Amino acid sequence: MKKLLGVLDLSYLYAFLGEATLALTLLFYVLLARQLGPEQYEVFASAAALGAILSLLISLGFPDLLTREVALDPEAGARSTIHFLSVECVGALVVLLLLFPITRLLGVTGLDVAIFYLVILAEVSRSIVLTLRSLLKGMGQFRAEMVVVSIERFFVVALALTVLFLTQSLFWVILTFMLARVLHLLGFLSYLNQRFRLWAPLNMARSLGAFKMALPLALSGVLWIVFYQADILMLKGIAPAGEAGFYSASYRIMEIFSALYRVVFYVSFTRLSQSFGDNAQQMARQVYRTTLLLTVGILPVVLLASVFQIPLVNLIYGETYAPSVRSLSILLPSIAVIIFGELARYILIAMKRDRYLPPLLVGAVLLNVAANLVLIPRWGGAGAAIATLVSEAALTLVCLQVLIKLGYQRIGWTISAITLLGLGIVALPSLLLNSLVSVWIGGLGILGVGAIAFLLRPQHFLKASSQHI
């Protein structure tokens, strides 16, 4: 515990408080699902999944890129903002032009088309806000970033829920949701413009340069969001009616706990980028701190959630969504793999090795889609969750192998071992719940915890790191 406290600072607390406001967004999704029922909620879930995919054509990896550039050089990085935003605006126009044929292809008709457009417009606003928030992250101003995100979520959710209870209409709720996000964006942009020098002479060459710089991250981001959101869209297309809604509900619960590891990366990515510009040993220590936080701070919480997954579904969504437990029992253990895959990818980005990511993600997406085509017709949402776990595990281990081949053997092999041990421990409650293992097998979890503790010793993790980083 003393070692864990030693890696913490107030930046992590501010990041945690900001992400804690995701509870408001979850509350909105839960009340929307309860008030409107699985069929209408499925329309929103499908639009949100499509919006998440198309939003990557807008942000194009600029949030991570801006964080890295500002962390390395705050003044020059801030002046890149205008060029990033100009490219994002072009991307938004392309997305809006593509949306109508996409809705026709998906068989969306009537008022549902308008709902899809409103959700996409809300995503446009959200994408730009994420880029602007990255300016604050890169400068290490996590308290200011926490205030901004808290205001946004309180404002948006309060207005949308008010309209939900007054109208019981999905259309008016999503219209309010979109307008609230746009208003917040305008206010946030005005605030930043007063504090920082965001503007530089705008010309085609610099904007194209920004696009080329962001292209590897853009491709990675598009593939990454497809990797996750394709499940819901494929469920809607080839699974029985309502299955996408149940899977979406379990995915939203998974996102609650995903927010915990995102808190760690919000701060650690800035630290990794800064330490890469300093010296090799400093970066090795930052990788160790991040691994320690993920293992000791996140995995026990996910394990606890796995133990109480049935009460979680009943408490949040009600007994109507009881079928969501089938997919949730698989999605929760997958977090044990996802967190270390994210760590490997952030290390590569901080070291400006992001060109390795697109081909790796192409393989993961193809594996995920192929597995979905095989598993969804047989097991529905549970099949989609299995596909996510398998493809995520493959991606994580391959990313860690890339680090090993780049010369980071000790770190790569150690994190690989922690990943597999963590998955086994977190999966035990789900295996017991589905009667796939005997109770006495749970004793192996104690051995797994001991093995992880051994791997996390600084003298083991950091041994010979200075030779490779």
TrEMBL record:
Domain of life: Bacteria
Membrane topology: Multi-pass membrane protein
Subcellular locations according to the entry: Cell membrane
Any one cellular-component term (Gene Ontology): plasma membrane
Parts of the chain that traverse the membrane: 12-31, 43-62, 82-102, 114-132, 144-165, 171-192, 213-230, 250-269, 290-310, 330-349, 356-376, 382-404, 411-431, 437-456
Pfam families (UniProt xref): Polysacc_synt
InterPro entries recorded: Poly_Biosynth_Transport, Polysacc_synth
Record key words, sorted: Cell membrane, Membrane, Transmembrane, Transmembrane helix
Primary localization class, coarse: membrane
PANTHER family xrefs: O-ANTIGEN TRANSPORTER-RELATED, PST FAMILY PREDICTED COLANIC ACID TRANSPORTER
Name listed for the protein in its UniProt record: Membrane protein involved in the export of O-antigen and teichoic acid
Species of origin: Phormidesmis priestleyi Ana
Upper lineage: Bacteria, Bacillati, Cyanobacteriota, Cyanophyceae, Leptolyngbyales
